[in-house]
Specification:
8-stranded mixed β-sheet; Rossmann fold; two-stranded antiparallel ribbon; alpha/beta
């Protein structure tokens, strides 16, 4: 067992490059390029700590015991630790265990030349919670991918925060260059005036990396739900129950208008019956309900960009993320943005659904509710006409909705301007 005393708080960065992931002579993941790029980033930025730090590079290692000893030394450090691994995941055919392929690993030599994945967890398990980060940029071969699909995750240790991506075997990589995910981490570290937290870096990297469809994104739903603030959904919760249907009543309107209409604002209109393995929605909702609105909005925006890249901006899932962002804006009190996003969602739905569809009406009702909450007369005047045009395109919508919007806009036009 490691001895984590109260001595000097020294940190460690351990960067490990396994074997390159190659498909039909095309490089999917180039671990050496990733390590070279990370090598020019200050260790304090990688570690998110100003304590004295040691850095170890392992590139081209062929003996798993050599990697194990480096890992053991790093795990014994008393301060913060970052372990970065890049390369190809494979499987020992006899034991059906995941391994990180090292230089020279072949299908027949996995047991002798690759690093068993459980060795990583075994070395990190005794470290104090909160001091260890594992960052992964990997690709799985055809033997490893079914096992990863079964697991739905790639745990390292209960005491470690694990962030990263594992790309599937059937895609063409970007050649012998820095991977998109790793490059995005580096770019964000360089661009941000203050070092973002690991979760935010992960979200931004996923959004910018142009990952192939089906890539395993870590953390997954189970880990996200555990990490979320109190009040977030439990693992495996349905998307509908994770966000719920939040009633929004126009309580601040004059009494006579308030009696005309009550608008129900669902935070999530749709979604699969069960959240997929890498679904971040429970965690995003936990952040928002805990008042961490900027983090929730940033993570939602990054995932929306990821969906645009993997499924297309006109996909059903992309539209769903517009609605999630709209209700996050409502929860944060940014009613102008919420109005604009709900209106955009309604118009997008009109492009592929009938004007009397329930989802179209719900999005329009969300826009109307948020518009009624705008306290800034100028913002309400600027966004009101577009909202009214939208409501007029929905003849089956409750006519009181349009009536309410028209009356309020007329009142705003008549009201004396305020300095």
């Amino acid at each position: 067992m490691h001895n984590f005393g109260l001595g000097e708080q020294r940190g460690h960065v351990l960067l490990i490059a396994g074997d390159a992931a190659v498909r039909r002579r095309g490089v999917q993941v180039a671990p050496s390029a990733n390590l070279a790029a990370l090598g020019v980033v200050p260790a304090s930025g990688l570690l998110n700590s100003g304590v004295p730090c040691d850095t170890t590079y392992l590139d081209g290692a062929r003996d798993p015991n050599t990697v194990l000893m480096r890992l053991r030394t790093a795990a014994a450090t008393p301060g913060p630790l970052l372990v970065y691994l890049s390369g190809r995941l494979t499987v020992d055919g006899r034991g059906n265990r995941l391994h990180l392929a090292l230089a020279g690993t072949t299908a027949g030599t996995v047991r002798y030349t690759a690093l068993p994945w459980e060795w990583l967890g075994a070395e990190l398990r005794d470290r104090p919670v909160g001091l260890t980060t594992v960052l992964l940029d990997l690709a799985a071969d055809k033997a490893a991918w079914p096992l990863l699909q079964e697991y739905g995750s790639l745990p390292a240790s209960p005491s470690a925060e694990v962030y990263g991506v594992v790309c599937p075997p059937g895609w063409h990589g970007g050649g012998p260059v820095v991977s998109g995910y790793t490059r995005a981490w580096i770019d964000q570290l360089r661009a941000s005036p203050t070092r973002p937290g690991n979760l935010r870096l992960h979200a931004l990297a996923v959004g910018a990396a142009a990952l192939p469809p089906g890539a395993l994104v870590l953390p997954g739903a189970r880990e996200l739900a555990v990490a979320a603030a109190p009040g977030s959904a439990a693992p495996g919760v349905s998307a509908r129950s994770a966000y719920g249907h939040v009633p929004g009543r126009v309580a601040h309107l004059p009494a006579e208008e308030r009696r005309r209409v009550e608008v129900q604002v669902p935070l999530s209109q749709e979604g699969p019956a069960t959240a997929p393995p890498d679904d971040p929605r429970p965690h995003i909702h936990g952040l928002a309900t805990a008042g961490r609105h900027s983090e929730a909005a940033l993570l939602a925006r990054a995932w929306e960009e990821y969906v645009h890249q993997t499924q297309g901006p006109a996909s059903r899932e992309a539209l769903h993320w517009v609605e999630i962002r709209a209700d996050l804006a409502r929860m944060a009190g940014d009613f102008r943005l919420a109005t604009e996003l709900w209106s955009a969602a309604a118009r997008a739905r009109l492009g592929c659904q009938a004007p009397d569809a329930a989802d179209v009406h719900a999005a329009a009702a969300g826009a109307l509710y948020c518009w009624t909450q705008l306290k800034d007369p100028r913002a309400a005047l600027e966004t009101g006409p577009d909202l009214i045009r939208l409501l007029r395109e929905l003849p089956a919508l409750d006519p009181r909705h349009l009536e309410l919007a028209q009356h309020r806009l007329e009142y705003l036009h008549r009201a004396p301007s305020r300095p």
